[in-house]
Amino acid sequence: NDPRSKVDDIVEAIKYDLQALKANPGHKDVRAHLSEMRSKLSVDELIQKGRNFYQQEDLEAALEQWRSALLIDPGNDQAVEYVLRAESLLANLERLRDEPAVSEGAP
Question: Which residues, including other chains, have CB under 8 Å from residue 7's CB and lie 6 or more apart?
């Protein structure tokens, strides 16, 4: 009864429904199920959980929460902004990791 796994299950169901709708956009049962699944999660709660992870410097976990929020509300400006900011930070970190190390006495 782990609440985290329930959220994961709902997010996976939403992803599956979205894929099914790409294949068959008019499928009424899938649309109804998608609506039901989206109603089970709180966008505000997911955004706040993402902010908590972000403050703990866990960018990957924060992104997971904000991306989940966007599965429920794709037009949520706050979640979009947070995802863009975190992706930019991760890209910068990757660039820094890929740069050759500079020795302290090098000119």
Answer: 41, 68
In degrees and rounded to multiples of 5, residue 52 shows phi and psi of -65, -45
**For every one of its 107 residues, what pLDDT tens digit does the chain have, with 9 covering 90 and above?**
566 688 889 999 999 999 999 999 999 999 999 999 999 999 999 999 999 999 999 999 999 999 999 999 999 999 999 999 999 999 998 888 888 876 665 55
Give Dmax over CA atoms of the chain in angstroms: 67
Q: Which residues 6+ apart lie within 8 Å of 54 measured at CB?
A: 62, 82, 86
